[in-house]
Amino acid sequence: MTTGCWLDGAPVDAAGRSLPLVDPTTGEPAGEVRCASPEQVEAALAGARAARRGWRTTAPGERAAALRAAAASVRDHADVLGDLLVATTGRLVGQARGSAAVAAELLEEAATTGVLDAGRSLAGSSGAIDVVRREPRGTVAVITPWNDPFPAAAGLLAAALVAGNTVVHKPSERSSGPGAAMAALVAAALPPGVLQVVTGDGEVGEVLVADDRVDVVAQVGSTATGRRIGAVTGARGAIALLENGGKDPLLVDAGVDPAWAAAQVAAGAFTNTGQLCTSVERVYLHADVADAVLAELVELARGLVVADPADPDSQLGPLVDERQLAVVAAHVEAARAAGARVLAGGERLDRPGAWYPPTVLVGCTDDMDVMTEETFGPVAAVRVVADWEEGLRLAGSGAYGLAATVLTPDTAHALQAADELEVGTVKVNAVWGGAPGGSADPRRSSGRGRGYGPDLLGELTALKAVHLEPAPPVRR
């Protein structure tokens, strides 16, 4: 395993700028992240370009076998990868190790399904053959986030690689060590140059996005970064696949069990300290059940064990760093100043590190940042609504469109929500879950393109129509 660069089949120490690392649990310095130098980024791009022909002409079965070998390696190292993520971002140890195991599953899934669709035949004339072929697009830059780096990277890497593309991957500088370590395990199972790994921040990412040798940029991360990527790639005719921020709503209908509904809200708002793309960030409670759900939710929030993420008994770890804590605290304070009431939490914990407790706010209004901007912290921001129709209208509003959850015993309401909510994923009666392979398009400020599921392969391949007729015999 290596936490540095991986270039042309070998680990390489990054030789560029240094970025400080801070332990989110203690607030103490924890070393540094070295960025790839400009020369190393150039070498990564050149190496991926040089490897393109050899990889695209490799038999699909051989590409799939390489991904299976990579999946086995990631699975064998899941505990080590998870522990590295705990130390870097403060994620709970069980969740971190499980996240690495999910990455292995995604690699295997792509190895199984990614070689099945090679194109289709067309109904042409009887004396000719007409087909549509799927071909790799070329070189893909994969730029991934810090909060859940293993599955986010594995899904994109696997789809790009099994389709015959070469890849240059840059994990987030906020989880550079874990991200580079997993990517290196994948790269070690592939021919040299097929997967290049570079470390660094936005400065390194800018070079990848702007380079004409990159045909597709696949990014999971902030909306601001996604918009910048979309502008740069659009200007030069490249493709951008973007899964960006969210402000996911959860709507609780009348007639639900209050304890169950509160547990769903808590799971959505507090898992990974609220630092997931599809975390629940705004909650709409039907007036008929609001008081009962809030009472249960406050009890759950106050009872969560907020402790060292390496402790298996801990239920909530720290935020990733002081910068993220400042965003969360600012949203809560602004809401409080504008009239929202804090029923649980609401103040950073008095201990070293980036600790913020599970927080429940009620009386939130649509003009508050905590209801409109991505908070990315353990905050359940609640608005009570008069009826289902008001709640559905509010849940469907806003600048983002990543996912939404509704809790309802009414089948008609469930079907209405699935039809009317303009988001990529609608979840009914379960804030987490879903079958593997689901494809979805994020809407509005949440991005564009199918960033996961079998349809992702379509984004990472180009269609080519081929018409074949026999040449006429030579006249003598």
UniProtKB/TrEMBL annotation:
Q: Which SUPFAM superfamilies match?
A: ALDH-like
**Record keywords, A-Z:** Oxidoreductase
Which domain of life does this protein belong to? Bacteria
Q: Which residues form a coiled coil?
A: none
Q: Where is this region: Disordered?
A: 434-455
InterPro entries for the chain: Ald_DH/histidinol_DH, Ald_DH_C, Ald_DH_N, Aldehyde_DH_dom
Pfam families noted in UniProt = Aldedh (PF00171)
Q: Which Gene3D superfamilies match?
A: Aldehyde Dehydrogenase, Chain A, domain 1, Aldehyde Dehydrogenase, Chain A, domain 2
Q: Which residues form the Aldehyde dehydrogenase domain?
A: 14-466
Keyword Nucleotide-binding assigned to the entry: answer is no
Q: Does the keyword Ribonucleoprotein apply?
A: no
A GO term for molecular function: oxidoreductase activity, acting on the aldehyde or oxo group of donors, NAD or NADP as acceptor
The protein depicted here goes by the name Aldehyde dehydrogenase
Instruction: Please give the organism.
Output: Quadrisphaera setariae
